[in-house]
Amino acid sequence: MSTPDLTYVTPDVLKWARERSGLSYQDIQKSLKISKEQIDQWEKGNGHPPFAKAQEMANRFHVPFGYLFLSNAPATDITLPDFRGRTIQATSDFLELLNDILLMQDWYRDYAEQNGVKPLPFIGKFAVNGIPNVAGDIRKTLSINDTLRRRAITWSGYLSALSSQAEDNGILVMRSGVVGNNPRRKLAVSEFQGFAISDPRAPILFINGSDFKTAQIFTTAHELAHLWIGESGISNPDPTHFETLNSVESFCNKVAAETLVPRDEFMELCDGKIHSGNIDRLAHHFWVSTLVILRRAYDTQKLSASEFSHLAAQERKKQREASAAGGDYYRNVFARHGARFTSAILAELRRGNVLYREAAGLLGMKVPTLVKMAERYS
Predict the structure, then answer these.
(1) Which of 68, 83, 255, 279 would be a feasible disulfide site paired with 9, CB 3.0-4.6 Å?
(2) CA–CA distances in Å: residue 358 to residues 186, 289, 363, 366
(3) Cα distance between residue 21 and residue 191, in whole Å
């Protein structure tokens, strides 16, 4: 191979791009036909990739080709507070998703102001104290009660009901397991489960749709707590680890548990000790995971620490992947971008206040597809 065919990329930047992509060496070898040994050598400056291969890597790592020639990796700081409790390298998938969500929020904020939408009274209403008060206000505002639970038939149905209640009260709720509409770019649950962006007129609650449905329910309640205390942030909430987190995450986890499984109601329904026979029954009643039920049992002294740890380990082994997403394409669009945001886009289309090209870009679809959707929901 002649020298002009080689590309003198910056080794450290190439390594940064690969790590940021979140791709494993196995993924890289399969899609780019590059061995681990070969890319290791390029990242150490021992040799240089062919021009065409460098372009393929830039595309696969989702970075502009020119970035690979920078003297240092560009700053890609996350613009939201990070409450995940450990340092996690932001992947290109997450950064692109977050950027898209922020653009949507900017558009909706302008739309809300132009249409006289008043600031929502519950955003930032409370400080980080008084768990029962915050949880009670969330339940009251969103009508999260036994009537809502009884209307649900499945965990998926209850998740949709919670989302609808939040949207009816002005919160933009978005759920997706991929970046845009690309099924190959799945959002990793290990990177984040959800995030909240506090705003008086355009608050956003995003849930990683790749997670278990029961986990999504808990994350939804957790992110609602973030909005009620006016704290934006990225989260990986775990109902079994309340005390090892920072104060905000610990508080939001406890509020989420009290919101979904009110202490008084739990005590009334729990017949004595927690055992395998009533864990599932209670989880089904409250439409939460068995892990949340175990945590509530521990909080109410119905389980010792050792019993809790043992049963929690058993329940984790029983967890399985939720059913693959499917169904009506347009319904998935409403779930991905939220009914409130999507409906606002369609309304502005009907009024002629937004171009189809702009609307299609905001919804991540092609113009012909948007035309069909607009006709269907006209």
Answers:
(1) 68
(2) 25, 40, 9, 10
(3) 12
Residue span of the structural domain in which 63 resides: 3-68
Q: Exposed, middle or buried by CB within 10 Å (0-12, 13-18, 19+), for 206? A: buried
Find the DSSP H helices in the chain. Answer: 11-21, 25-32, 36-43, 51-61, 92-114, 131-142, 146-151, 155-168, 213-228, 247-260, 263-269, 276-286, 290-299, 305-318, 329-337, 339-351, 356-363, 367-376
The answer on 191 and 52 residing in a single domain is: no
pTM above 0.85, yes or no: no
Residue 249 and residue 157 in one domain: yes
- Looking at the structure, do residues 153 and 106 belong to the same domain, yes or no? yes
Residue 198: how many other CB atoms lie within 10 Å: 20
Q: Which of 369, 20, 27, 376 is nearest to 181 (CA)?
A: 369
For 218, counting Cβ atoms within 10 Å of its Cβ (0-12 exposed, 13-18 middle, 19+ buried), the class is buried
Residue 164 counted as domain residue: yes
What are residue 100's phi and psi, to 5 degrees?
A: -60, -45
Structural domain count, the chain: 4
Residue of higher predicted confidence among 220 and 353: 220
29/6 Cα distance (integer angstroms) = 20
Which of 35, 68, 101 delimits the end of a domain?
68
pLDDT tens per residue, range 266-304: 998 887 777 766 888 898 899 998 899 999 998 888 888
Q: 260: closest CA among 237, 231, 283, 233?
A: 283
Q: Could you tell me if residue 356 is inside a domain? A: yes
Helix, strand or coil, per DSSP, at residue 94: helix
Residues 6 or more apart whose CB falls under 8 angstroms from that of 17 comprise 57, 58, 61, 63, 67, 68, 73
Query: Do 153 and 277 lie in a common domain?
Result: no
Q: Does 133 share its domain with 276?
A: no
3-class secondary structure, 208? strand
Closest listed residue to residue 317, CA positions, set 352, 291, 341? 291
| DSSP-derived 3-state class of residue 84 | coil
**Residues 111, 241 within the same domain:** yes
pLDDT band at residue 321 under the 50/70/90 scheme: very low
Same domain, 243 and 312: no
Using an 8 Å Cβ cutoff, are 14 and 45 in contact?
no
